[in-house]
Design the sequence.
């Protein structure tokens, strides 16, 4: 490592100790709490993840409590955080630690990697913070800080880039206080070396930052262009019976929202009108044995729900019927409208339910 950067870790930790945010997981070395916070903060900002962390710790104070909870309860508590595979992996790992490891988390980076849903970043965080193992974390914040200070133009989402950044991060880590160092570099990226318009003039690394010296801060880090966004067209059938009951279906196939609940869904290649909807064989299959009284489009303008690589153009069709005699399919539930809140649903459905049923009836 060049002599210019010999005091990189010292500068960084000094800054961190003066400016760090006081967060609950920074006041503990309990691997359960560190693991929980790191899983939650993947793809999630601290301001959004903090309330969920506090709710989970209150509901499940120990890994045993989480392991013994029904998966449906875990998914319901997770509702709104997105990337639901994280919640399913969280529950599976809690069961593994509780039932197969006597409630004790692995104490090494290598063994932590064996846990479901735990990759290089999470294993490095837990190993360094809880067990003082000098394993460097590399997340979006770390990529940004290192790429700018060292002027690295290798794409961060390439195999060679990931290897290069990990090696450099490993060389930079303070081996005497690896947990503090890892939290420091992540905090610096999150709070100071931010994606847009960082305050470079007052930065502690101004004199050694390659990007600042070459005026390329806004160009780093480099990322290979993502795949084009896929557009999908969702038509939800909100079936309402006179006895204030409706139908929810659980998503059991692969893909988004696995094991969450939603209204019966018909996916089409484009937006459709009422006549096109009721002409679809899938519509007749979904409404078989229902005594339909009316079908009305709730939202003329589609709700566009944006996921990482797909946009869901969603419309809700209100299907009124005198009674529900529809034979339940696998994963299908005949539920009271007042009980919908008991089911774990995607935020798209949650938003519709809170808006529509507030004024229903």
Sequence:
């Amino acid at each position: 490592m060049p002599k210019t950067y010999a005091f990189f870790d010292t500068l960084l930790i000094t800054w961190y100790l003066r400016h760090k945010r006081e967060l609950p997981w920074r006041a503990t070395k309990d691997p359960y709490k560190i693991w929980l916070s790191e899983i939650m903060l993947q793809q999630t900002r601290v301001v959004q993840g903090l309330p969920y962390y506090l709710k989970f710790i209150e509901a499940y104070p120990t890994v045993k409590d989480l392991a013994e909870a029904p998966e449906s309860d875990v998914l319901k508590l997770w509702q709104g955080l997105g990337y639901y595979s994280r919640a399913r992996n969280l529950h599976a790992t809690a069961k593994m630690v509780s039932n197969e490891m006597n409630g004790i988390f692995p104490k090494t980076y290598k063994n932590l990697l064996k846990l479901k849903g735990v990759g290089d970043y999470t294993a490095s965080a837990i190993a360094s913070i809880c067990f003082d193992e000098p394993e460097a974390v590399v997340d979006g914040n770390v990529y940004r800080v290192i790429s700018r200070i060292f002027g690295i133009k290798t794409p961060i989402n390439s195999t060679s880039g990931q290897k290069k950044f990990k090696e450099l991060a490993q060389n930079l880590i303070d081996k005497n206080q690896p947990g503090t160092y890892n939290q420091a570099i992540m905090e610096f990226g999150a709070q100071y070396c931010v994606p847009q318009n960082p305050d470079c003039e007052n930065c502690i690394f101004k004199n050694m930052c390659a990007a600042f010296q070459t005026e390329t801060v806004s160009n780093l880090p480099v990322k290979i262009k993502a795949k084009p966004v896929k557009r999908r067209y969702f038509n939800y059938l909100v079936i309402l019976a006179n006895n204030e009951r409706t139908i929810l279906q659980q998503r059991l196939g692969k893909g988004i929202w696995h094991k969450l609940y939603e209204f019966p869904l018909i996916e089409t290649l484009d937006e459709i009108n009422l006549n096109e909807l009721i002409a679809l064989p899938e519509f007749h299959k979904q409404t078989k044995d229902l005594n339909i009284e009316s079908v009305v489009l709730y939202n003329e303008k589609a709700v566009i729900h944006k996921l990482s690589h797909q946009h869901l153009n969603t419309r809700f069709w209100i299907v009124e019927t005198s009674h529900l005699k529809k034979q339940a399919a696998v994963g299908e539930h005949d539920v009271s409208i007042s009980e919908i809140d008991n089911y774990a649903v995607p935020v798209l459905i949650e938003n519709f339910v809170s808006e529509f049923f507030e004024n229903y009836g």
